[in-house]
Design brief:
It is a single chain. This protein folds into two domains: 4-80 and 221-308, Glutaredoxin, CATH 3.40.30.110; 90-215, Up-down Bundle (Glutathione S-transferase Yfyf (Class Pi), Chain A, domain 2), CATH 1.20.1050.10. It is α/β, with parallel strands linked by helices and 310 residues long. The chain is globular, with a radius of gyration of 19 Å. The protein has helices at residues 13-24, 44-47, 66-76, 90-109, 112-115, 124-137, 148-166, 179-192, 205-215, 227-235, and strands spanning 4-8, 28-33, 55-58, 61-64, 221-224, 258-263, 271-278, 282-289, 293-300, 304-308. Strands 5-2-1-3-4-9-8-7-6-10 form a ten-stranded mixed beta sheet, with helices on both faces. The protein binds glutathione (GSH).
Length: 310
């Protein structure tokens, strides 16, 4: 089996979600540090336009979005299962956390009183470039916009509820961590890491104790590699995923159709390719790129849409 390559950057919360899962499972992997803002020249040949962080690569199979990355890791490395049997509806809570609660966390983390501590904001030109890039990322979307006066009470409300829940168990859904813990952890990590915002967590000792337990899983055994090396690995590999018709009639798309896939929340960059698979959980398309040849690009169903290629 080819090794996992995680395309990410240290400050990225969704990357922290995946790093923590890799740590919990005790996995070794390669990491490519990608730029925080566009352009991302060593990522685009792999994804075909998807620009969010993180992206996981295994040979010539490319996984876009932390939801499908988490599932793929758990499938390939089932030890310390984070999708407990009999608790499948937990994924709805994980999705709410990765979308709505994350949006609250963004407003809290980027509030003016805390921005000075953000390592990304230590020179004015970098701030300007970051703001321009994120304006482009959220063009046509309201999904990342929430006033702090609305977001902060929501954020604290969920900390309080989580604190109360954690009084009865070591992790959010029992004695072992599940996908919900990792989704909640990265949103909290994002805010807690800023010294100006840490006091928000003070009343919630169960949450801070749980965050310490989550942090203690570490990030696994990481080897840093270059983007060019990752491209070469893709070029020298063939996608493992093959075309497969679904067992259910879900939509009108069939393997072989030329389609575009894009997020429904923000970062509306469509990825075009030939449909390999469109199940209830996953959409996979095959595309050919001058630099890497054939790749299979995977997306979760939830949070993405397919349309016929224009
Ligand atoms: N639904 C996506 C959200 C990913 C996301 O929004 N990531 C942020 C960084 S944590 C991002 O892409 N920011 C813009 C960028 O890195 O270019 C996931 O679960 O992976």
């Amino acid at each position: 089996m080819s090794e996992i390559i995680l395309h990410q950057y240290p400050e990225s919360p969704f990357s922290e979600k995946i790093r923590a899962i890799l740590g919990y499972k005790g996995l070794s992997y390669q990491s490519v540090t990608i730029p925080v803002i566009m352009p991302k020249p060593d990522l685009m040949p792999l994804t075909g336009g998807y620009r969010k962080t993180p992206v996981m690569q295994i040979g010539a199979d490319i996984y876009c979005d932390s939801a499908i990355i988490a599932r793929a890791i758990n499938h390939l490395h089932p030890q310390r299962n984070i999708f407990p049997a009999g608790q499948q509806a937990l994924e709805a809570l994980a999705h709410w956390t990765d979308t709505f609660f994350f949006k609250c966390a963004v407003a809290v983390a980027f509030q003016p009183a805390a921005a000075g501590n953000n390592p990304l904001f230590n020179d004015p030109a970098a701030v300007q470039a970051f703001m321009a890039d994120r304006a482009e990322l959220s063009k046509g979307s309201q999904e990342l916009a929430m006033d702090l006066s609305i977001a902060q009470p929501y954020f604290i409300q969920h900390l309080k509820r989580t604190d109360q829940q954690l009084a009865g168990s070591a992790f959010m859904a029992g004695s072992e961590p599940s996908i919900v813990d990792f989704s909640t952890y990265h949103c909290c990590w994002f805010v807690y890491g800023n010294p100006a915002l840490k006091p928000l967590f003070e009343p919630f000792r169960q949450v801070t104790g749980w965050m310490e337990r989550m942090a203690a899983f570490g990030h696994g055994e990481v080897t840093e590699t270059e983007g060019s090396a990752a491209l070469e690995i893709a070029r020298n590999s063939a996608p493992v995923t093959v075309a497969k018709a679904g067992t259910m009639d879900i939509d009108s798309f069939r393997p072989g159709d030329l389609v575009e896939v894009q997020p429904i929340d923000y970062g509306f960059n469509p990825v075009r390719g030939e449909l390999l698979l469109a199940s209830l959980e996953e959409i996979v398309i095959r595309r050919t790129d001058d630099q890497v040849g054939d790749v299979a690009v995977h997306f979760p169903r939830l949070g993405f849409r397919i349309s016929a290629a224009s």
